[in-house]
Every structure is written in C-alpha cells, then in structure tokens.
Amino acid sequence: MTSVMAMLEAGIWTWSAEQGLRRDPSCLQLLGLSGDELDDLGWLARVHPDDGARLEEAIRACQRGESGGLRLEYRILHHQGHYVRLEERVRRDVDGTLLGVVRHLDASAAQQDDRHDTDPLTGLESRSHFELLLDERLASESGSFCLLQFTVDHRSKILQLFGEVACDAMLAKLARIVRHELRREDPFARWDEDGFILMLSQTDRLSGLEIAERLRLEIADASLLPERPVTVSIGLVQSQNAEQIDHLLARLASCHGQARREHNSVVG
C-alpha cells in the first residue's frame, strides 16, 4: 500500500512572472530525489528527448496567455536512471499565475487503479475497498476501533475561487499530511469529492478524539492554498461489539453531519 501511495501522490508547482518557478518538494519525490532542490539536471533536461520540445512549448503557450491550461503525458528520467511516465496538468489563472500538478502514470499504478483499490488523485484507498476492509474488520472480532470521517469546509467556494486544478492539488497535499500522522496499518480512504475516512485500530473514543483534534489543527495550520486557510469538519465514533457496518456508518454520518454544520470542529 505504501509503495502505491508513493507512486500516485501529486507533485505541485507554481509559476508567476514576478516570482518565477516554485516547485514543491513533492515533485522531486516523484523522481526519487529528496530535499528542496534538483541535482545537476534540471526538470526539462530530464524529460525524454522525444517529449521535451512538446512539453516546453505547451508551458510557454500558457505563460504567454495563448492557452488557459494543458494536460500532457511525458517521460522523465528518474534518479535511479530509468524513465517514468508522468501526467502534467497546468491551469493559468486570470492574473497569469500557472499552477501545475504532476502524477505518475506507471503501469503498476494503472493496474492498481483498474482494480479500483485506490483513488487516483490521492493514492489512498478507494471507498469501495475501504468498505471491504471495514466489513472484514467487523467480522474479525479483534477489538474495538475508531472511525473518523472528515470533509473539507466550503469546498464549493474554494473550487469557485481557485479552480479545479488547485482544488485537486490541495486535496492531494491534505491526504499526504494526514497519512504522515497515521500508522502504516491504519486504513485511510477518499470517501467522496471533498471527504475522507480512516480507521484507528485498538483506539478508544477519547484517544480517537485527541487524534482527530490534532489532525484538525495541523490541517488548519498547513499552507494548502495561497492566503486562505483550509479547515475540516470531523466526525468520530468507536465501534461497538457485534455492530453491523450499516449501523456503524449511520452513527458516523450523524456525528460527521453535526461537525459539518458547525465547521472546523470535531464531534464524537
């Protein structure tokens, strides 16, 4: 699961005439690099010779205002010496700023997507796969656990102000922040367009509330969008003995719904 997530996470970059190109470290991680800077090869220098001119011209057209955006697939040299396939989507805002999102298109990632085990944007579990895992967990009778469901507040307003590409990039970064705070064995899924769900094994309600509050604060403090904080509303429940999945999810939906009405809160 961890390797699949690494392949599917999005890299993000921005460009403006005033500040130039700013590439998030997540872009470099796609190429097997660490830190904040490329090595002696620049990004375009790594692109396959048959793809480089097409990519460069498309980006320049966006910079000149001749195109409002692009979606391209190309090959780029990985740090270990082999080429990987990337998808790059770029959007040009009204002020001329470019926002780019790049993702892996490796064959192994495509196979995972074909099985519907993962969400292609975030690399998290898909909703259907999470429900299967939850059903198996309830049937195993291996102790209680907590479920957390959370939704980005005011996503429709964010979408209106920043556009689809920026919204997608925000969700991908949010998923990485949360995944980093969880244990590897804790299932974590994209639940719907603006929501997520996760399972905390061997965790009681009070401990779950502490974790939920920590996640809420960390997300609110993160720079997920320029000059606009992103907050989430979190619902939490602890599983009950011999509880059926429909009953558990209904209780969770009730807590989550109350949290959404309050905004930027935890209810459980």
From TrEMBL:
SUPFAM superfamilies, sorted: Nucleotide cyclase (SSF55073), PYP-like sensor domain (PAS domain) (SSF55785)
Matching entries from SMART domains are given as: GGDEF
> What does it catalyze?
2 GTP = 3',3'-c-di-GMP + 2 diphosphate
A single Gene Ontology biological process assigned to it is: cell adhesion involved in single-species biofilm formation
Q: What is its EC number?
A: 2.7.7.65
Q: Which GO terms describe its molecular function?
A: diguanylate cyclase activity
Q: Which organism is it from?
A: Aeromonas lusitana
Q: Name one GO cellular component term.
A: plasma membrane
- The protein depicted here goes by the name diguanylate cyclase
Q: What class of enzyme is it?
A: transferase
GGDEF domain residues? 143-268
CDD domains in the record, alphabetically? GGDEF (cd01949), PAS (cd00130)
